[in-house]
Structures are given as structure tokens and as C-alpha cells.
Amino acid sequence: MKKIIVIAGLIFSYGLGFAQVNTLTSKEIKKGWKLLFNGTNLDGWTSVGKTTPPEKGWDIDNGILTVNKGGAQRGGDIITKDQFSDFELIVEFRLTKGANSGIKYFFTQYKKGGWLGLEYQILDDETHPDAKLGIQGNRLQAGLYDMFAPAKDKKDKPIGEWNVARIVSKGSKVEHYLNGKKTLSFDRKSIKYKDAFLLSKFKDCEPMFGDVEKGHILLQEHQDEVSFRNVKIRVLK
């Protein structure tokens, strides 16, 4: 019998086909997808308010980007050098027990409130205390942090397994997906959004939180160990 050897971390299934980690298929390239993380270094990324990425806190091994691996010293968040408006973003992430992180988009410096961005929450809902804070579940994984809760029937993978986050932004409308299932949709220009804003921790920022045309993509460093791979984006026209 022939043995098929699969190198862990280098090959994974996605949809109906197979692809290498941190690479794009010819079909994806044709559709306009671009890698934000090349699997080797942090080219294309910086620190908040700086021109270079952190010198510590972020570890790259076998194509996997891990923050605070083994309790490493804090290095801070990383953000893309480029800014985006209408886009489709995919990020694979893997949690450790009790971990907290996030994917921020439309991340920019506000006139009042400092650097802020809409956050796709990444969280161990079962054990992290933040899951019990906020209003009606608006700090749970795959929701919009401190604004909107995700769908109750969302499908989180067990701790230690890879989840797939997908964010689609077109005009003022945004959708969140987790492992192929839509967890949230909202309109940044709606009354519902404005009402949530006024109840959130961002209520004093200017301009209104999320009312910006474009911003950076951010991967959050929140003291906990979280891994990322296959970070890719395509601009929507």
C-alpha cells in the first residue's frame, strides 16, 4: 500500500479543493485576491502610528503567525500599510483556551477617541470573562465588538482548531461570517447602528465610530496566544 504523507501546516482543505497555506490559486488571483500575510515575514504590516512592525511579540513558524506565543513579551497590534474601503477579507485563526483577540477594519485615527476600528471579535466564548460583559452578547466571537451580537446558531470550532473569519464590506453595509455561516449583517448608516453606537464604549468619539470611508486592517495583540494564517483580501468594485 502506498503511503500518502501530508506535511502538517502546509496543506489544508478549503471548499472543494486543496491549496497550500498562504498561497493563492490561479482562480483567486484572477478574482483579485491578494495575500496580506506572506507566511514568511511581516512585509506590508506596521505598528499603530509607526512605520515598522513590532520587534517582539509576533512569531512566524511554518507559515503560521502567532501572537504572544508561550507568553512572549507584548509587542502591540499590527496593521496593514494599505487602507481599504470596499473589500472581502478572509482570515484563518486558531485560539488557545481563554484567549481574546480581534480583527479590526476601517482602523484609523479619529479626531476624538484616538486610533479605532470596527472589530470582528475573536474570543473563547466558553471561558473568557468578556463573553459575559456588554449588552445582549455583543462581545461574543464573530460579532461586532461592543455593538452587535452574532447569530445564536453560529458554528465555532473547538479550541485548538482553525476557524475561518470572513468580512464583506460594500458601501455602508457589512457582513460577518464564521466558518462559512453568516453571523451578522449591519448598515453603518442605519438608525439601528447609530443606536448601538450611542450605547457603546465608543459613544464619545468623533466622527461617529465607523463613519469613515476607509481604514487599515488590524490583527489584535490582547496578551493571549492566538495564531493566524491565510490572511487575504480582495477589493470590491
Task: Supply the key terms.
2 helices; Jelly Rolls; disordered N terminus; five-stranded antiparallel beta sheet; 237 residues; 38% strand; mainly beta; eight-stranded antiparallel beta sheet
Describe the protein's architecture and organization.
The protein is mostly beta strands and 237 residues long. It has one domain (22-235): Sandwich (Jelly Rolls). 6% of the residues lie in helices and 38% in strands. The chain has helices spanning 26-30, 191-199, and strands spanning 11-14, 17-20, 34-35, 45-46, 58-61, 64-67, 78-80, 87-95, 100-110, 114-123, 162-170, 173-178, 181-187, 216-219, 226-235. It is globular, with a radius of gyration of 17 Å. It starts with 10 loop residues before the first strand and ends with a strand. Mean pLDDT is 92; it is low at 1-18.
Topology:
Blueprint: E1 11-14, E2 17-20, H1 26-30, E3 34-35, E4 45-46, E5 58-61, E6 64-67, E7 78-80, E8 87-95, E9 100-110, E10 114-123, E11 162-170, E12 173-178, E13 181-187, H2 191-199, E14 216-219, E15 226-235
Antiparallel strand pairs: 1-2, 3-15, 4-7, 5-6, 6-15, 7-14, 8-11, 8-15, 9-10, 9-14, 11-12, 12-13
Seen as an oligomer or otherwise, the chain set is single chain
Helix and strand sequence? EEHEEEEEEEEEEEHEE
Give the helix level as a range of percent.
under 10%
Q: Write down the Rg.
A: 17 Å
